[in-house]
Amino acid sequence: MVVHYPGRCRNIPSGGGLVQAYCVKCRTQREVKDAQTVSLKNGTPATQGVCPTCGTKIFRIGKA
User: Total structural domains in the chain?
Assistant: First the structure.
């Protein structure tokens, strides 16, 4: 379950670089579709989005 905290979620500008994350269903690195920058409870930055191939939610911890 993903919890969004007010003020901690924003869209990544499309002009930024490509963000890739590991898709568990496809078992490969995929470009993140509809990527959003999210902060975890402890303040660590992360990127959340959707796999363009299978539509599964994918998540990458760390700066985009």
Answer: 1
4 inside domain: no
Q: Strands of 45-50's sheet, edge to edge?
A: 9-11, 33-39, 45-50, 57-61
Report the sign of the C-alpha dihedral through residues 3, 37, 60, 46, in that order. negative
Note the pTM of the prediction, 2 decimals: 0.68
Instruction: Tell me how far CA of residue 19 lies from CA of 5, 6, in angstroms.
Output: 22, 23
Domain span holding position 38:
9-61
| pLDDT 10s digits, 40-57 | 999 999 999 999 999 999
